[in-house]
Every structure is written in C-alpha cells, then in structure tokens.
Amino acid sequence: MKQLNEQNAPKLISEFALEALLYEASLSPKPGLVDPKSCGAHADMNYSTFIDSSTALAPFFTKYIDLGINHDGSPSALFEKVRALGQQAETAMLRKTKGINTHKGANFSFALLLSATGKIMNDKHLQIPFAKEDTADVFNYVKRMTKGLLLKDFAGLAQKKQLSYGERLYLEYGIIGIRGEAELGYPALKDNALPFLRKYYNYDQRTMFLILLLRLMATIEDSNLINRGGINGWSNVQKQATELLQTLSINSSEKELEDALILFDQQLIEENLSPGGSADLIALSFFFGRLEGLF
Asked: Which of 5-14, 167-176, 274-283 has the highest mean pLDDT?
C-alpha cells in the first residue's frame, strides 16, 4: 500500500485520470462512439483526436488535485476555482483538437472529482487504494461543491435569445445533464457503475467495461444522444441497450459480444447517434476503479 503525500499523490492520481481517458478511447467496439477501429457517428473526429485531446488535458489533472489539497474554504469556493481552471483546460483542449469538442463533459467531471479527491485525501490523510467509503466521501463533497448549480446556471433561460443545447434541453424537457449529475453526487457512478465494477473486477476487463457501457446506455440521461436524436432517439437507444443486456452478460463469449456491439454500432452510425455521456462515465468508472485498486 502506497502512502500518499503532497509530493506523489497528485502525480499518481492524475496518471489514473489520463489512463482513464485513454482506456475509454481504446475500448472497442463501442456503439456510436470513437475507438481505434471506428469513428462511430462522428465525422469530425477519430481515435487520434482523442489522444491529442487527452494529452492536452493531462497537465490540468494534477492542478485540479492540487486545488483540492490546498483549499481552505467552502466547497462552493473550491467550485469557483475549479471552474475557472477547467475553462483554461477546455481552451487548451480545443486548441489541440482545432476546435473539435472531444472531452468537454469529461473535463468538467474530472475537474470536480479530482479536486474533491484532493480535498478528501488531504483531510483524511488517505492511502491508495481508496476504500469505497472514501470514494463516497468524494461524491458527497462534489454535491456540496455544486449545490444550487442548476438553478444558478439556468436562471433566466426563458428570456435568453440564444440557448446552448444543454440549456434548451433543460428548458424544454427538464433534462439536467452533467450539471445535474454532479449536483446529485454522480449517482450513475455511485449506484450503478462502481457497484458493478466492485462485483466483477476479477472478470475479463474488456468484457466488463463493454457490458458496463450497455448498462449505462440503458439507464442514464444522455444529453449527447438527446441532442442528436431527440427524446425518441435517446429512448430507442435505451430500449435497445436494455434488450441486448437480456441476451449478453459478463459471461458472454468474446465473439457473441463483439458481433452484437458491431451491429449496434452500425445502426447508431446510420442514425447519427452517439452516447457520449455514457462514454464519459466509462472513463470516470475506470478512474475510480484504479483509485480503489480494483485493477
């Protein structure tokens, strides 16, 4: 067990975050998503774009952790610091990708979760691996950091003349997006993804994460899907992912799993649908799996 201290912890944990982005990008086949063999439903990006984006964000991961470690104030004050740094990271990402948005949502989440990890790590004098209770403390701290975020960010939307797609979805359908997921303390990770990984971490890792991807596609509110296909497109993808999970499992053969997901990929490409929210959660799941020493 490695003792964490202010010198080695930010570097080590930021490496987990970079590994997580690279692992998600390399996982295949992912329906509608970019991987080394397919651009999914994305005409403007490929696997190399994701590598470039990940390397652009990597230096900021340590900075997010440092903000948490050195923070002496309210959770909301830490959020304001992290959001400002996160905007710098997003600018660096877009510069590297020539304006292509690969990891905007993932950067937002890693900014919150890494800074909260630094804060909890410092307050509790933690060691790696984290216990699941330590991870729960991170999620709870993010809830405190983001309390009231939706109301604050989406105040006065009805009077705005130009809305982002996230704002439009919230106004028209009540879709809360990644802000809402953060304000709730990441229930998709806490209640779905991480219990699954803790149960099956001894199984084949690729199979485990592909099944987890389907579980997330079947259950989460994915604003990426809704933006491309509307509520009906999102609902149909959820239904199909649910149906696949009735025939596929952690014990499915590699060929059975690959064949089913390749067909699903082809369908989503034809329909121009991409479950980017689920992809971000795969990366975050991998990160916490590494932090807890599951693999």
From this structure: 274-283
Both structure tokens of 6: 């202010």
Token pair 């439903």 is found at 41
Query: What's the distance, CA 26 to chain centroid?
Result: 15
Sign of CA dihedral 167, 171, 177, 180: positive
Considering only residues 186 and 10, tell me which one the structure prediction assigns the higher pLDDT.
186
Q: What is the pLDDT of residues 160-178, one digit of tens each?
A: 889 887 888 898 889 999 9
Contact 275, 234 (CB under 8 A): no
The 3-state secondary structure of the chain, one letter per residue:
CEECCCCCHHHHHHHHHHHHHHHHHHCCCCCCCCECCECCCCCCCCHHHHHHHHHHHHHHHHHHHHHHHCCCCCHHHHHHHHHHHHHHHHHHHHHHCCCCCCCHHHHHHHHHHHHHHHHHHHHHCCEECCCHHHHHHHHHHHHHHCCCHHHHHCCCHHHCCCCCHHHHHHHHHCCCHHHHHHHCCCHHHHHHHHHHHHHHCCCCHHHHHHHHHHHHHHHCCCHHHHHHHHHHHHHHHHHHHHHHHCCCCCCCCHHHHHHHHHHHHHHHHHCCCCCHHHHHHHHHHHHHHHHCCCC
Gap between the Cα atoms of 99 and 95, Å rounded: 6
| Contacts of 163 by beta carbon, 8 Å cutoff, 6+ apart | 157, 171
pTM over 0.90: yes
pLDDT at 5 (0 to 100):
52
